[in-house]
Amino acid sequence: MKSFFSFFLAALLGAAIFAVVYRSIDKKETQQEVSENNNLSVHQTNYTPRSAVIGPDFVDAADVTVHAVVHIKSELQQRNEVYNDFFDLFNDFFGGHQYRYNAPVVASGSGVIISSDGYIVTNNHVVQQASKLEITLNDRRSFEASIIGADPTTDLALVKIDVENLPFLTYGNSDEVKVGEWVLAVGNPFNLTSTVTAGIVSAKARNINILGEVSAIESFIQTDAVVNRGNSGGALVNTDGELIGINAAIASNTGSYTGYSFAIPVNIVKKVMNDILNFGEIQRAYLGISFREIDSEFANEKGLKEIKGVYVVEVLDNGAADDAGIKQGDVIVRVNSTDINSKSSLLETIGTQRPGDEVRVYVMRDENLKEFKVTLRNRSGNTDIVKKDKIEILGATFEALPQEDLDKLNISSGLRIVDLRNGKFKSSGVREGFIIISVDKELVKSVDDLKFILEGKNGGTLIEGIYPNGQRAYYGVGL
């Protein structure tokens, strides 16, 4: 018995020694393997590779996006009466009203680089009425920017800095965005460098009536990604790092984020940016109808079987819809492949088209689905490309100089700038009060002279003139 007990103790001791030695060897091998595979210290034993992380992974999308989002500082002569700042957009929405006027201010927002040569998209209200724009990249380099064009009806603007080889975002497809999918909002809140927040798409085609334009297109992507002061004009991206929207506003009665933010769909952004670059003017397409949304009460009144689509209230004579055969009382349920269930969805879908484009419009008529091919028109009722008047793109109002001023400045003729807005002159450095004497050496005596001279001009144009203090100045203006 004694011999057996001694043997048992020896076996137990041997097993314990083996367990200790095994655990020591296993631990050493685990530490060495982690070190070799992950470049970590041999003391790091809690590393979890990204491939093992459960849930959405935003690292790659964030890394792509932050370098393509910029900070925009706008110097304004006064507050804009439509947009006070990013948060005052919703004061009226929640009962407030705090506009301020006639005070020089510095406003800030964000922008998204969309090309390697320095084109940046942002909100119109970020740069509207700005006398100076400064862009700060994520690497903290700063550049002065010029406004290429803007569209108040979509609250979008295109600005440019003279820099090459910039990181930029590629366009996604906002039509493919699904409610419930993960998204990232990237901007410059509180004047910081690019900040990333995550959320999901809460809704699409939201109309919140904030743009204040009769022909405004409001069809926002609603998300619960956290955005705050300075995010306006920043990027909304999917998990692949593709741009799917430009952040425009938040719903807040405090000036801080309280749950919802709204972004302009990238398909509208893409179309507006291309219009500005290719035509210098937004090419708006129209169906030529007036319409209303359908609710249960209206459906009962009109004897409609379903509460879907939009109801055609009126068809304009000789308009696009009229020529295609659409009639009053039709219910539009789809345009191309997009289901139509609201004013916003119809405006968004048509808003991505140009005059002359053909769309397939599906309507319910007498409980039958009918298809119409509609060639869209411009606001003048034809399919021509709308071109901005050369005088208009200068962004200025003029007056002829009286003889007294001509004698004082010792010049024979001249055209004075009495009001300067966003346009070619402002982006070229021309200041209010400048007196145009000649354009490409041709004397200017009146607005008609200026129009006639500019009509055949394309590319760089030399503007020669004088300021009221007698200072001569020359400006190169691209037309």
Topology:
Blueprint: H1 2-38, H2 59-66, E1 69-76, E2 105-113, E3 119-122, H3 124-127, E4 130-136, E5 142-151, E6 156-160, E7 182-187, E8 195-206, E9 220-223, E10 235-237, E11 243-251, E12 260-265, H4 266-279, E13 289-293, H5 296-302, E14 310-315, H6 320-324, E15 331-335, E16 338-339, H7 343-351, E17 358-365, E18 368-375, H8 390-394, E19 396-400, H9 403-409, E20 415-420, H10 424-427, E21 435-439, E22 442-443, H11 447-455, E23 460-466, E24 472-478
Antiparallel strand pairs: 1-2, 1-4, 2-3, 3-6, 4-5, 5-6, 7-8, 7-10, 8-9, 9-12, 10-11, 11-12, 13-14, 14-15, 15-16, 15-17, 17-18, 19-20, 20-21, 21-22, 21-23, 23-24
Tell me about this structure.
With about 475 residues, the protein is α+β, with helices and mostly antiparallel strands. It folds into 4 domains: about 1-45, no CATH class; about 60-280, Thrombin, subunit H; about 290-375, PDZ domain (Pdz3 Domain, Roll); about 390-479, PDZ domain (Pdz3 Domain, Roll). Helices cover about 25% and strands about 30% of the residues. It has helices at about 1-40, 60-65, 125, 265-280, 295-300, 320-325, 345-350, 390-395, 405-410, 425, 445-455, and strands at about 70-75, 105-115, 120, 130-135, 140-150, 155-160, 180-185, 195-205, 220-225, 235, 245-250, 260-265, 290-295, 310-315, 330-335, 340, 360-365, 370-375, 395-400, 415-420, 435-440, 440-445, 460-465, 470-479. The strands form 4 sheets. A 6-stranded antiparallel beta barrel has the order 1-2-3-6-5-4. Strands 7-8-9-12-11-10 form a 6-stranded antiparallel barrel.
